[in-house]
What we know:
α1 (47-64) crosses α9 and α3 packs across α4 (126-143). Helices cover 27% and strands 26% of the residues. By secondary structure, the chain is an alpha+beta fold.
Amino acid sequence: MPxxxxxxxxxxxxxxxxxxxxxxxxxxxxxxxKVYMQAALHxxxxxxxxxxxxxxxxxxxxxxxxxxxxxxxxxxxxxPLGMSRIESEVxxxxxxxxxxxxxxxxxxxxxxAIGQTVAPKLTMDAAANVxxxxxxxxxxxxxxxxxxxxxxxxxxxxxxxxxxxxxxDLHCDNEALPxxxxxxxxxxxxxxxxxxxxxxxxxxxEDSGGGSFDEVWPTLWTRLRAAHPDKxxxxxxxxxxxxxxxxxxxxxxxxRNDAENLFNFFIAKGFIDLPLPETPRPAPAPTPxxxxxxxxxxxxxxxxxxxxxxxxVEKGQPIADLIALxxxxxxxxxxxxxxxxxxxxxxxxxSKYVLPGASIAKIVGTEPLAExxxxxxxx
Length: 379
């Protein structure tokens, strides 16, 4: 199927206002495998838009040559609501303006939604079980009546993604090296993705506590498999969040390279019938997300980093100083900010003026930290 552009108009909350969501589909309509991709769910994170801009022509060329063995559904800019969140020239695209909800938090729990209704339909036929589960999800989606603009947007997105075998959500950090957020079962299917994107860390959690979009899909299948061990239920919802460096890393060269690496990942998985280029260097082994410290400050100040991205630090090592901005030692005192674990620094904060509670670094360790339980994400 040649590249198809589908534009959906979504009514916004204010009278007389709408927003438009663009979807691309490409690949054989009867392909057994479906890949769903989206970028800029956090609308102020745009490296993924650039990557998809360069990926679409690659997919078009492969389709014209009859090379595609999967069908692709792609939202290059999945959150037009967030793109409009500009106040005093500052983009606030991480949060919904009306509710204050993080656009990548509190997505529906599909196991809670369809777990009981689908249970009687499960049989000893694995393919039939996949069909029944996806049918139950579609029926649940069709029964919903979203009210707010954000609910309508989410409903449209889920209606496109619910039957995908692979779900890739393209994000970025503040200032960072490439890395992945992924569930354990998904990680088993995404080793090549980590390798090809040059990921510096694979942060693994069964449930990170935030109801993020990438966990909606694998969680459904993992929980159904656990609830019905006597039934053959394939793991049919591989998903991950791909963190493409930092917010300022929106450049043609980077985006083109990211697109080519995604394309090569699709070749490696058999979704595109082309010879695979030379295999890249293996990415680091996965580590528990609970072993990654989200290092925070306890007061306001001006950050002065002592370490660069990618550096290995030891527990107790100063990674930054916080320059006082008030009190009797304002502008003269520096308080060292110490690493709470040994590991590699994969992210830092672009804004050097920070407030109490601000996260200033991710340090990827190997041993789970006692304080890292429940909600494992930055807000």
